[in-house]
Amino acid sequence: MQSTEQPLVLDGWIILHEKSAITKGSQTIHLEPKIMDVLVYLLKNANRVISREELTENVWQSNYTSDEVITRAISVLRKKLGDTGKVHKYIKTIPKHGYVLELEDVSDPTIDEANGSLASSQSTSAKQGINPIIAMTIAIVTLIVLVVVFSVQLFKTEVVAVTDGKINLKIDQFTAVDNRGSSEMVARVLSERLMTTLSNSESANVVVDHDSLLDLSDARIDFIIRGGVQEIANEYQVNFHFINGSNGDVLWSQSFAGDRDAYHQLVNNISQTINYFITVAYKDQLDLHNLSLKSLQAAILIHQARELRRVNSKENHALAINLLENALLSYPKETRLKSELAWTYLKGVGDIQNGDSKQRVQQLLEEQSQESTQDAMYLGANTLYRYQNDDITLTQAINEFKAAIEAEPDNIELITRLATLYRVNGRYQQAGELLSGVIANNIDYSAAVFQWAKLQSQQNKTPQSISLLEDYVKRNPQDFGINQLLVQLYIDSGKFAPAINHLHKIDMDQSNQQLLEILADSYYFLNQPEATIRYYQKIDITGSPIMSFQRDCLVEILQKQYSQAEKSCQMADTDNNYRSRFHYARVLLLTRNFRSAVQRYETAFANIDDIKGKYSRALLFEQIDYIYALSQTEQSDKVQMLADAMLQQLQNQNRMGYLGYGISDVILWIAKGDLEKAGDLFSQALNQGWLHWYDYRYGGPHPALQMLITDERYNQWKNYIEQAIVDQSNNVNGELKQHPVAE
Fold this sequence. Notes:
This protein is an alpha/beta fold. The protein has 30 helices and 12 strands.
């Protein structure tokens, strides 16, 4: 069906009244019908001041039109036309009189400006004396062509779009249930707002029943939106119905209410709520034909929790947990909430050994396991929980995650976790393929960016990893995990000043205390022990005696007060924290009590079931220290065997960056007794950017490096490191600058 509508033109904008749309080039914008009526009325009365009363009489034809409605209409028009400067180009306000739409040529506000074709042909014919009949024929043909072009384009927008996967909606005019004029006005405004909001949505195609280009009987309409408005006790109540477009059945209904004097807010809230619901349904591919209202509301809450989890911060995880816990109270039969909640606990806590969280996750998973069907998130959460508890192997976890993804192929959280497991398993290509696919469509998904940066760094692309994280942090400055990884990569690549400068930009009171500890450690890498100790003292250890002993242990090592450190470290030694259990062994190493150190290392390792598996890289430096301590106890055969195995393990790993081994190979060759080989590798490490001479874990250089003092390159190495540290100290934006390096 072809439109008989004659398009109007405003400075290149084609105004299609019946379509309630304006278009320029490939851009099409839908307007509320009344707002379109205002634009057309102003166009047809261009260069004449139109009062508010005239607009009310000729456009709204209602006694209930307020100044606010007219002001909003003009504001929306200016915004849609890009007329938002201090001096308005099109619609100008004439104080106390009304509005005027200014046009240079008012003889015919039709298509004479469009693409310059008709106006150009008319102008040429006048100048060159072309026969008026020929000129008129050209004008008519051009107009017909343009109308057909725009009709076809809009027809494609309305009809062909039904195959693009979007939700196809028909919006019926809302009615006044009480037949009051005020209710009719609200019903009309609500219908127009819904039409405008949903027409501009990327998730929906909107079909209007007055569309002259579309035969509605041929259009596939998924759902119909309609409802009624009535005024009760100084409130407007709106009954909203969501209807199956194929058979007319009401799928669900919802009531909204708002103060009579704030009906615009009510209209806006309803429009935004429905738009959000349509967007969630489209993005999450919900089966709206078979969802109850409660299931739909639960699905929306799940979507909100997933959105919160997209940016990794303690606040977001806490909000997601609270949201889902409350949702589960409201909708206890919606079992998907349990899966999502278990996953949120696992993703947010990090250390599942946290007693309360572990018990809650276990409870949720056990309850969900009793259901007849389990969703993909349950499969993922159950797998992750058992893997973190060492109940299944890495290979088993990978296979189970692959099965979970088959149940929900577009779940980016499950895909990213599978990629993480591939990375841990050393299957970098598979991990990269998954992560690049996720990031391509979800550039700000924190977990994918986090894992991609780790993967790149492990492949000796730490500068690229840092660049990726820096770019992400600019857009999401509060993402704790990304900030922590960025700083760690700075440190791992010998960039201590950038690490300190970045940490000083973060509000430590709102961040995990671990960042404060990293800041303290970073200062020590620049040989600033006073600043290191000062920041250690700021770490909140309230209610944690173990953390108190651990901090005292570290501070006393820095101060080389080894007798006190030995006592504090021994008190901090606990099997519940694998980090602190090695402090005592380390202080024994530093005091050259090698036999006792070896015994303590062996005891600590014996309490870790999977030292050769998932903890192997996490405890790399502890294993290196153990081999060095063993080398000082004349157990050469065992040292050679362990050192060779460890060197083989390091062979294909990165020295600098995430999980870099630093100078572990240097220490291993020292333990093996080959100082020349160790010296060559130390030079190589410096060339690759290693500057961790002042290491907080040892209160200075690793004790093994003292054995390289006989190398003729020793002073050259030390001078190079110290100068690099001085240069970085001069670039610190924190509280300390230009501190000389102590001899």
